[in-house]
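queue> pop job 88
queue> type: inverse folding (structure -> sequence)
queue> payload:
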């Protein structure tokens, strides 16, 4: 965003004015938050489904304020919870929760479902999960329910001003292409051809999300898939990451970034924000001690090598202090690691957040933008950015 230098001070003046006038309203009324994706962001939808992809038994949730297994694949908070905190809100409820009704709908909703991927046949072994097209269908249904409460126009505003998180893709590798040796997909596609295929399918999902009104969407890449305890347990002799999966995420992440850029160009605005979760993981996985971890290879909860075999259950090994483990179970980061990731989402440089971080997005708070419109002639770049987020 290049602001002509002569108008910088004016922008600052207006921004200060704006936060003075509207700051309180913003605090009292945080923007809505919507979450789509897989187990990294599922806050409990699968509790309501007949599926084996679930986290509703101890020791899941051991460090959650309720000390109960909530369906989150974490010892405590997951990434969406920590983002909710940062935007001054409370955790969004799972869309399938019977508690999600009335005014609570205005906080947002979590549509994510453990086990799903970009492709409909990803996670097929989990049988009854909410695949991406159904998550989007539920989002549409949600909007009809909110319209009945506050009217269609206000619902559109709520959705347009909302923050959205989308986390997909990891399962298209671990629960599809690499699920079994010589899987159907891997016989159909080389990995070099599979990645562009899933990226083009992902593009359709994101476009649909835009059509449904999303205007600020954080899209996470895949973490270092080959380095999670489950993969180390199966493929690693000396703690080295599994080469095939590392190659897959090295192919996937840059192509995802390119796709987001091309989609933004087509739409004409910064709707989709790339979150480089691989880079964020790499920091604490290459130097765990610097982040207070004793290990980034062994899961806190599990069994077998690296605690990476099978599920985390009441019978599993369990570490006494979850804060010193980067991985909670064989696939999912601990709450402590989630905090490091969300810190970078909030303030990370363009190495982590492309093209901007969440604190920048929140600074483009809609009510400020109406004031910035006053300086339209002098600082049109800023105004256009705001026009986009308030009117589209
Ligand atoms: C996935 O399913 C939806 C409808 O349920 C369909 O529209 C879409 O084309 C499917 N995607 C693929 C890649 O087959
Ligand atoms: C991210 O956030 C910080 C504010 O905490 C800001 O100084 C920095 O420039 C931002 N970086 C980007 C790339 O937006």
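queue> result:
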């Amino acid at each position: 965003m290049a602001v002509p230098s002569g108008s910088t001070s004016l922008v600052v003046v207006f921004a200060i004015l704006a936060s003075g006038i509207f700051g309180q309203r913003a605090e009292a009324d945080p923007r809505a938050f919507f979450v789509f994706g897989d187990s990294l962001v599922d806050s409990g939808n699968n509790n309501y489904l007949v599926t084996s992809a679930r986290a509703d038994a101890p020791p899941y949730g051991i460090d959650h304020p309720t000390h109960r297994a909530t369906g989150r694949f974490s010892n405590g908070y997951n990434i969406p919870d920590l983002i909710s905190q940062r935007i001054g809100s409370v955790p969004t409820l799972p869309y399938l929760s019977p508690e999600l009704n009335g005014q609570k709908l205005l906080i947002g909703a979590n549509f994510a479902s453990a086990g799903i991927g970009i492709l409909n046949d990803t996670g097929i072994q989990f049988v009854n999960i909410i695949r991406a097209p159904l998550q989007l269908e539920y989002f549409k249904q949600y909007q009809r329910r909110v319209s009945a409460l506050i009217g269609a126009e206000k619902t559109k505003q709520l959705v347009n001003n909302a923050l959205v998180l989308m986390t997909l893709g990891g399962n298209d590798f671990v629960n599809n292409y690499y699920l079994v040796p010589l899987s159907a997909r891997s016989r159909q596609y080389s990995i070099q051809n599979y990645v562009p295929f899933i990226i083009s399918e992902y593009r359709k999902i994101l476009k649909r999300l835009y059509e449904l009104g999303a205007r600020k969407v954080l899209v996470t890449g895949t973490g270092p898939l080959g380095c999670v305890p489950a993969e180390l347990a199966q493929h690693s002799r000396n703690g080295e990451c599994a080469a095939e999966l590392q190659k897959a995420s090295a192919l996937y992440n840059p192509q995802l970034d390119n796709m987001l850029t091309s989609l933004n160009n087509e739409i004409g605005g910064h709707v989709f924000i790339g979150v480089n979760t691989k880079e964020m993981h790499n920091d604490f996985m290459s130097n765990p001690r610097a982040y207070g971890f004793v290990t980034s290879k062994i899961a806190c909860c599990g069994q077998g090598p690296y605690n990476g075999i099978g599920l985390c259950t009441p019978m599993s090994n369990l570490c006494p202090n979850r804060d010193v483990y980067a991985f909670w179970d064989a696939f999912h980061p601990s709450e402590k690691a989630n905090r490091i990731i969300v810190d970078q989402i909030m303030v990370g440089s363009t190495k982590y957040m492309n093209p901007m971080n969440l604190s920048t997005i929140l600074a483009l708070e809609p009510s400020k933008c109406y004031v910035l419109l006053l300086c339209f002639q002098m600082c049109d770049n800023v105004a256009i950015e705001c026009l986009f987020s308030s009117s589209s």
